[in-house]
Each structure stands twice: as structure tokens, then as C-alpha cells.
């Protein structure tokens, strides 16, 4: 598809303005209508003089959820862009290649087996044990996929996808076993978490997500030139002075950590890491210096839109946002498979 590219500065301005509008919309839209004026006033420092119930809904429910949505969407999009550059194929995605499944299994292990501690030490579990086990599961899955899909000739897309399917099946079996041994309360907690939802946003989770976003973005952006060289092939990147093994190892660890943290906080949210980097390339091209920031902004924007749909489609009932992203992303994945089928054999 030929798309006319515009300057990065114009792209940034349009993207950031769209994100700010989506932020205000996310605060305004819901079962209780809040005007855009009140939404904007609530974001300003100082006394707001808003009605008590409006102020409560904004600051206790919608603003935390919106901020978490921005951080999670940006992390998933950055990790997707990095993985697609690292594997050098457009089908790499934390969910499709098994990272989310492994991270989900690790998080579920912590949630279900340490359920008594969730009641007595919720902060320790939510920002400690659950993210750690999610990261561990995601890291193991990532290593296995990369190890199975890579040989001396490079990375095989077919083998990588099959490895992701196998790891997803193993993770599904593990989740089924954990469901079987879980008590009623742990099972309810896990069921809500497993569909991917931003409804349980907490300030501790938001803090963890934004700290992770800053660290992941900073590190990945510093590796942008190396990723650009990597697009030419491992041998070419090595000739250009890139430490290929260190680059692969470090970026895999960073992406596994990012996906593990998002899965631990919100549950699995699919297809953001697959779709957004493609949109970013269509807009700004393959240069990771512009692709990574654009992907971060678009990831936050698209997840905000998906969350607004999840909250509003069947109001006052709420759909898990993971269902909405799957509905939006699955057709795009089918399109990519059809487009790439002549090149992935």
C-alpha cells in the first residue's frame, strides 16, 4: 500500500492532539455523562468547584482508568514494534508468539496459589509477586520462541508462529489446571483478570505502569539505530558494528518485562502490539527513531478508544477491553496472513 508520508513534526502534533482529545473523551464518556468542560477543569491544578459526585467519579474512577489505559497501550505498542523489528517480520506480537500466554500463566500462578496473601498484602502482591511471575513466564516463553524459530539462516516465521501456538497450548493447559485447583474467590479473581480489563485501576498499578513505560521507552529508543541496522539482516547489522547477540538478548528481556507487567496489571490484552506498529509504519515509515514514539502514542490512543467502546457499548454493563481489541485486531491479523502467505513459507 502506497501511503504519502508527512513530516514527523506534523505527525507528532496530530497524534498528540488526538490523544489529548481521547483522554478528555475517556473521562467524559460513561454511564454518567460528564461534560468536556468539566473533564478539562478536573485536570487543572487547584480548586475545581465541581459537583461532589462529578469530582468523585472523575478522580476515583475515570482518571485512574484513563491514565492506566495510556500507559498499557503505549507499552504494548512499543514492545510490538520492537519484536517485529527484532524478528524482522510483521506477524510478531506478544500474544501471537506466546509471550502473553506465558506471562498470563505466571501471573495466574501467583494470583491463585498466593490467593490468601492477596487479601492481607494486596500492594505487595500487585506490584511485586504477580508482576515478577508474569515477567518470568513471559521471559521463558520469549526465549523458547526465539530459540525454536532461529537457526544459522535466520528467523523462520512459520516455526516461530508454530512455537507460539505450542506455547499457547501449554499455557492454556497450565491455566486449566490452576482453574481446577483454585478456590471460589481465587477463581472469580482469575476469571475477571483473564479477559483483560482496566476496571481495577489503582494508583499503585498506574505508578508501576508509567515507571515501566519510561524505562522501556528510554532503553528501546536508544537501540533504535541498532534496530534499523537489524532490519537489513543479522550479518549486515554485525558488519555495521551492532552486537547482535546482546541486542537480541536485551530487547527480549525488556519486552518480556513490559508484557509481563501489563498482563499482571490488566490481564491479557491482545492485538495492540500487532496492529499499532503497522499503522505507525504506514504513517511514518520503518525508521525506529520515529516508529517507536508514534507507536507509543497510537497504542495509547487506540486502547483508549477500545476502552470507551467497552464501557459504552452495553452501558451500564461493561465489556472487558480485551474482547474489543480482539474484535478489532483479529480481522487485521487475517489480512496480514493473507498478505504475507506467499512470503512466509
UniProtKB/TrEMBL annotation:
GO MF assignments: transmembrane transporter activity
Annotated TM spans: 6-29, 66-83, 95-116, 123-146, 158-180, 192-219, 251-279, 291-313, 319-337
Q: Which residues lie in coiled coils?
A: none
Q: Which InterPro entries match?
A: ABC_BtuC-like, ABC_transptr_permease_BtuC
Compartments reported by the entry: Cell membrane
- Keywords linked to the UniProt accession: Cell membrane, Membrane, Transmembrane, Transmembrane helix, Transport
* GO CC annotations on file: plasma membrane
What is the protein's membrane topology class? Multi-pass membrane protein
Q: Which GO terms describe its biological process?
A: siderophore-iron import into cell
Stated family: Belongs to the binding-protein-dependent transport system permease family. FecCD subfamily.
Name of the protein: Iron ABC transporter permease
Amino acid at each position: 500500500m502506497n501511503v504519502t508520508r508527512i513530516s514527523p513534526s506534523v505527525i507528532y502534533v496530530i497524534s498528540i492532539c488526538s490523544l489529548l482529545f481521547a483522554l478528555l473523551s475517556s473521562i467524559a464518556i460513561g454511564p454518567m455523562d460528564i461534560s468536556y468542560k468539566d473533564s478539562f477543569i478536573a485536570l487543572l491544578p487547584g480548586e475545581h468547584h465541581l459537583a461532589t459526585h462529578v469530582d468523585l467519579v472523575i478522580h476515583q474512577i475515570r482518571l485512574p482508568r484513563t491514565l492506566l489505559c495510556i500507559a498499557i497501550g503505549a507499552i504494548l505498542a512499543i514492545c510490538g514494534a520492537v519484536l517485529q523489528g527484532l524478528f524482522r517480520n510483521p506477524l510478531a506480537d506478544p500474544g501471537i508468539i506466546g509471550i502473553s500466554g506465558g506471562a498470563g500463566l505466571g501471573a495466574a500462578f501467583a494470583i491463585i496459589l498466593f490467593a490468601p496473601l492477596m487479601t492481607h498484602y494486596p500492594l505487595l502482591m500487585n506490584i511485586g509477586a504477580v508482576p515478577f511471575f508474569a515477567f518470568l513466564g513471559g521471559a521463558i516463553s520469549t526465549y523458547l520462541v526465539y530459540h525454536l524459530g532461529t537457526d544459522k539462516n535466520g528467523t523462520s516465521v512459520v516455526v516461530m508462529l508454530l512455537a507460539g501456538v505450542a506455547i499457547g497450548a501449554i499455557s492454556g493447559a497450565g491455566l486449566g489446571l490452576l482453574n481446577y485447583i483454585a478456590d471460589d474467590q481465587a477463581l472469580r479473581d482469575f476469571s475477571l483478570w483473564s479477559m483483560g480489563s482496566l476496571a481495577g485501576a489503582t494508583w499503585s498499578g498506574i505508578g508501576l505502569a508509567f515507571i515501566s513505560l519510561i524505562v522501556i521507552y528510554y532503553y528501546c529508543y536508544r537501540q533504535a539505530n541498532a534496530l534499523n541496522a537489524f532490519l537489513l539482516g543479522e550479518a549486515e547489522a554485525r558488519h555495521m558494528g551492532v552486537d547482535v547477540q546482546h541486542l537480541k538478548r536485551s530487547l527480549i528481556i525488556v519486552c518480556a518485562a513490559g508484557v509481563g507487567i501489563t498482563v499482571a496489571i490488566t490481564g491479557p490484552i491482545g492485538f495492540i502490539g500487532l496492529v499499532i506498529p503497522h499503522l505507525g509504519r504506514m504513517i511514518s515509515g520503518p525508521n525506529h527513531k520515529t516508529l517507536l514514539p508514534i507507536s507509543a502514542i497510537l497504542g495509547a490512543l487506540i486502547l483508549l478508544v477500545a476502552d470507551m467502546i467497552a464501557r459504552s457499548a452495553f452501558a451500564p454493563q461493561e465489556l472487558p477491553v480485551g474482547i474489543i481489541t480482539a474484535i478489532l485486531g483479529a480481522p487485521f491479523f487475517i489480512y496480514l496472513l493473507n498478505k504475507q502467505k506467499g512470503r512466509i513459507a
